[in-house]
Structure formats: C-alpha cells, structure tokens
Design a protein that fits this description.
By secondary structure, the chain is an alpha+beta fold. Helix 4 crosses helix 6 (244-263). It folds into three domains: 12-104, Nucleic acid-binding proteins (OB fold (Dihydrolipoamide Acetyltransferase, E2P), Beta Barrel); 138-274 and 438-562, BirA Bifunctional Protein, domain 2 (2-Layer Sandwich); 291-429, Gyrase A, domain 2 (2-Layer Sandwich), CATH 3.30.1360.30. It is 29% helix and 23% strand. It contains 18 helices and 22 strands. Strand 20 (484-489) and strand 21 (492-499) form a beta hairpin. The protein starts with 17 loop residues before the first strand and ends in a 6-residue tail after the last helix. The protein binds aspartic acid. Aspartic acid binds next to strand 21 and strand 22.
Length: 595
C-alpha cells in the first residue's frame, strides 16, 4: 500500500498508530538535531518530524536532503505534537518518521506553493499543474465538481438523460464565429466545433428523448472580452411537450436546489420581469437586484416645454435647461446615503461617467439634505418643488443623492446602468454572500445590426416568436417578442433559452426574415427542417454557463480559477503553448497550403 492515510486524515485519535503517508514536501525546517517537514497532498498537510535521537541515522541524513516539492513516502508513528496548531485538522499530531522513500526529486518550483503565493498570473498559468497544488485553485476545482454533481443528480432525478452530442459538426449559429477543423478525408471540407449542441438537442426531441441534458464544452471564436474563454462549459438542456412556464419552473427548481445545497441559502422570491421592464428600470437585461436604485424617468418633470401646464411640474419662469430639454430621455437614480458626498467626490464620479468606456457628456446631481431641502447643480433652473418631484420618482430619501443623466434613450440607460453598478460596488452593496436570481422574459425576437442594417435573431434562429406577435413580423419586426428567457444571478446572465419553432413553415419564414435565401437555409439547416416534417413535438430548453455559475456560487468574479486549464486573454494556453504551427507533412495531409 502506498499510503494508509491521506495527509488530511490524522488527528489525536490516531496517536500511537503506525502509518504510511505519501505526498509533496511543502517546506522543511532544520533545527540541526530536529527536522520538520510539512507533507502535503490533496487532502491536507501533515507535519513530519525527524529526530536525531529517535530516527535512524541514514533516515535522518535523507531528511536533510529533502527539497521543496520532493515527492516522498514515509512510514512512522503518530505522536502528539508539543506545540499544537488549532488551525489545522492535523494540528494536534505529527509523524515521527522511521522510514523515508524519496519517490521523486523536484526542481525548485518557480513560485511558492502555498495559499499566499509570490507567483504572478502568467507564471502560475505556465505552471498551472503547480498552481493546482495550491488550496485556492484545488478547492475551486473540487467546488466545481460538487456543483456539477448536484446538477447531474437533480436533473437525473427528474428523468433527464445525459446524452453526448458530437464535437465535429456543421456550424450552429449562436452569434459567434466557429472554430473549424479541416477534414483530411474530405479535401477542402471542414467541420465546425459546436457553439452549442442546439440543433442536436432539438433533434433528440424529435427522437423522443423528451428530457435531455449535457454538461458540455462549447466553442466560440469571439474576440476575447475580459473573463471569457474560447471553450467553456454549458449545462445544456432541452424538454419536449412543455411551455415556457414548465421550463422556468424546472430550472428555477434547479437553481433553488443549488443555492440551498451548495450555499445553504434559501431563495424566497424568484422574480420574473420582462425585458422591457429590465431595460427601463435597470438599463440592462441582466440587472443585479441585490440592491435597489431603480431608474426614475424624469422627462415629465424635468422638461419644461413638454410638461408645462400639465400640473405635474412647476417651473421657474422663462428659464429652461437646454440639455434636458433636447434630450430624448432624462433619467436618474437615488444613491442611498450619498448626500454627504463632497464636491471632490462628486466631480470624481462625474469624471467616471465621462470616461470613454461609459461615455456620458455630463451629470446632474441633487443632494437630498437631511432637513428635507434639495441642493442641486441645476438650482438655477429648478426650484424645490421640482426637485421634490425628482426625489419622489427616483425614490430618493433624505440623505440620498440623485444622479441624473440625459441623452438618447438607449445610450443614456446604458450609461446610468454602468453608474448604478459602480455606485453599488463603491457602496458595498454587491455582497457575494447574497444571491438574488430572477428571470428576464419576453425578449425581442430580433435585433437590428446597425452596420449591415439586417435583422438578427437575438437568441438564435430557432427561437419561437410569441404567437400573438407573429403578425408584426412583416410590419414591425423589432416589436416582435420571443418566447425567450434568461436567468440572471447577481448581475450576470447565467442561463438562457427559448421555446423553439417546431414546424417547417415557421422555421422557413424565420430564415427568410433573417435574410437567408432558400438555398442558404436548405444548405445549412435542411436536416433540421427535414426533421420537422417527421413529427417534431413542441419543445424548448435552455443552457446555463457552468463556469460562471460556479464562480458566482463560489463568490468570485473571475471564471478562470474554476477551470483546470484555462486560456489567457489572447486565447492561448501558455502551458502547452497552443495554438501552434503544425509541420509541413500534417498540413499537406490536410490539403492546406499556407501562404
Ligand atoms: N443554445 C443556447 C445557447 O447556447 C441555449 C438554448 O437556447 O438552449 O445560448
């Protein structure tokens, strides 16, 4: 037996036992006549002691030669430690070593393999296998496993069947570029790696496997944004004979279960809001609702020309604030407790929204003083009664500060949304131990690509329009809503899906509106439309991003630590050095000529 116990198993109850352990030498302390070594494995650290008096001479000498990360096996007796360490499960004992086998020597590692490391990101990526020996990374991988197991068990218990779908396929449109693989046996032809198993899972429904899931790698060749990986993992699901409501309920159940089983958190409310409401109220379709700061639209009370005489606002005569007057949207949020901000702090925040990443041209503020009065940067134009209306609409209380942006509606909402998140971060309102999931439903079916002037499927081209909106397709495509939904957790889209089109005619129509010629549609998706002619059941599904879900449950912002071998920001694996060139022979076999 290589080992009788792991390095995390022994405690006072084992004192007196003969044991064999194996692992890595984390560090040694040589006091001359006493040598201690910390032996580490996946399960913990156990202290070894070599004593000139009690240890055989040659073993003692061997111990002197031990270096960091040597792989060793020891036999010895569990003894009580003189100075105990209450912070370690094995802190009451140590092993008085009688036999030592050096299984493998190790070069000095390029960084310290302890919880706190001196290794920078790049170095740790290059030697990822060493980083994995560290608790933070190791625990993240164990945590991911636990989440994946909970998902598998939960869905299996509901009769979902995990089915593998192929990786060498034909392009599936999820809005990104495909990674392609040249075919050696079919000159000039290529496979695409799946952006998702979308069409296959739909075909599984036609095949009668009415509840499918798969924890599956997906590949999208996107320009990498921060914290995106070109290959990532989805919990991919599909169900037949369901309506949107059924799907929402099943996956709300899964999410509740995960939060309860993994975090011990019972979620009471699981709100459902429409896409339109989300955009108007939070300025984006993945709102973080752990905190309030809802948008208050101020057009009616801040615009003089339109509002004048309607009794809502009282106006100082003959003065108007042109910036608001000319804006499509004037909208504000109440930042709780921020009335105490100094001029300097306010200016810093104004500079923040003016950065090109946010892009606001300026910002108006209103201090809601404790005594019930208001002090604003637009006092010249608005009196106390006006400002009181703003406070009412934004929900501002005494002690709060209202920040107001204006301009084209969509842009201004996006800017205020960025400010809302920034304020929440600054105010400590984004508590990683708190979980606020919700569904966003009724997404638009199509979105206009400004550049090409063409309509794109907002989710993907298999998404079903809401039947009642069907007739708008021809007249006002932007207004057609889809049976599509996203699950949002703490400001992140963690999952999304839709009810699918399951008849050939509608699918054909959809391709037409998306600008596919009949030939193109047939070429790319003929197999799916054929399948729809052989008894396709109504079906729908969704996919959760496992990497992100695990990171959020783990209370982290970045997904990289939860992936064993992640790629860097340029899509490279710096450990194995991929992508890389391949040799002439291989290229030739693949019929590829490089210029
Ligand atoms: N295939 C979709 C995606 O990857 C999810 C779905 O519609 O089920 O986003």
């Amino acid at each position: 037996m290589y080992r009788t116990h792991t390095c995390g198993a022994l405690n006072a109850a084992h004192v007196g036992q003969e044991v064999t352990l194996a692992g890595w030498v984390q560090k040694t302390r040589d006091k001359g006549f006493l040598i201690w070594a910390d032996l580490r494995d996946r399960y913990g650290v156990t202290q070894l002691i070599f004593d000139e008096q009690r240890t055989l001479e040659h073993v003692f000498q061997q111990a002197k030669s031990l270096g960091r990360e040597y792989v060793i096996q020891v036999r010895g007796t569990v003894i009580e430690r003189e100075s105990k360490n209450p912070n370690m499960p094995t802190g009451d004992i140590e092993i008085l070593v009688s036999e030592l086998t050096i299984l493998n020597e190790a070069q000095l590692p390029p960084f310290t393999i302890e919880d706190e490391t001196d290794g920078g990101e790049d170095l740790r990526m290059k030697y990822r296998y060493l980083d994995i020996r560290r608790n933070p990374v190791k625990n993240a991988l164990l945590f991911r496993h636990k989440v994946a197991m909970e998902v598998r068990n939960y869905l299996s218990n509901l009769d979902f069947c995990e089915i593998e779908t192929p990786y060498l396929i034909k392009s599936t449109p999820e809005g990104a570029r495909d990674f392609v693989v040249p075919s050696r046996m079919n000159e000039g032809q290529f496979y695409a790696l799946p952006q998702s198993p979308q069409t296959f899972k739909q075909l599984l429904m036609v095949g009668g496997m009415d509840k499918y899931f798969q924890i599956v790698k997906c590949f999208r060749d996107e320009d990498l944004r921060a914290d995106r990986q070109p290959e990532f993992t989805q919990i991919d699901c599909e169900m037949a004979f369901v309506e949107q409501e059924d799907i929402l309920n099943v996956f709300e159940g899964l999410t509740r279960h995960l939060l309860s089983a993994i975090k011990g958190v019972e979620v009471e409310k699981f709100p459902r809001i429409t896409y339109d409401y989300a955009m108007k109220t939070y300025g984006n379709d993945k709102p973080d609702i752990r905190f309030d700061m809802k948008f208050g639209e101020l057009n009616d009370v801040a615009k003089r020309r339109k509002g004048a005489g309607n009794g809502i606002a009282t106006f100082k005569e003959f003065t108007e604030f042109l910036i608001f007057e000319e804006a499509e949207l004037v909208v504000g949020i109440a930042a709780p407790g921020c009335a105490t901000y100094t001029r300097k702090e306010i200016d810093a925040l104004i500079d923040w929204v003016k950065r090109p990443q946010v892009g606001a041209s300026g910002m108006v503020y209103v201090k809601c003083e404790e005594d019930g009065t208001y002090k604003s940067s637009v006092d010249k134009f608005y009196d106390q009664e006006d400002l009181a209306k703003w406070a009412e609409i934004t929900g501002a209380k005494a002690g709060d500060m209202i920040f107001v942006l204006s301009g084209p509606a969509d842009k201004t909402r996006a800017q205020l949304s960025a400010l809302r998140m920034e304020l929440a971060t600054r105010l400590g309102l984004r508590n990683p131990a708190e979980f606020a999931p919700l569904w966003v439903v009724d997404f638009p079916l199509l979105e206009l690509d400004e550049e090409s002037g063409r309509w794109h499927a907002m989710h993907h081209p298999f998404t079903s329009p809401k039947p009642e909106d069907m007739e708008l397709l021809a007249t006002n495509p932007g207004k057609v809503r889809a049976n599509a939904y996203d699950m949002v957790l703490n400001g992140n889209e963690i999952g999304g899906g839709s009810i699918r089109i399951h008849d050939k005619a509608t699918q054909q129509l959809m391709f037409k509106y998306l600008g596919f010629t009949e030939d193109e549609a047939r070429n790319q998706f003929g197999f799916l439309m054929d399948a729809f002619q052989f008894g396709a059941p109504p079906h729908g599904g969704l996919a959760f991003g496992l990497d992100r879900l695990v990171a959020i449950l783990g209370g982290q912002e970045t997904i990289r630590d939860f992936i064993a071998f992640p790629k860097n920001n340029s899509g490279r694996d710096v450990m194995i050095d991929a992508p890389s060139v391949i040799d002439e022979g291989q290229l030739k076999e693949l019929h590829i000529k490089l210029r």
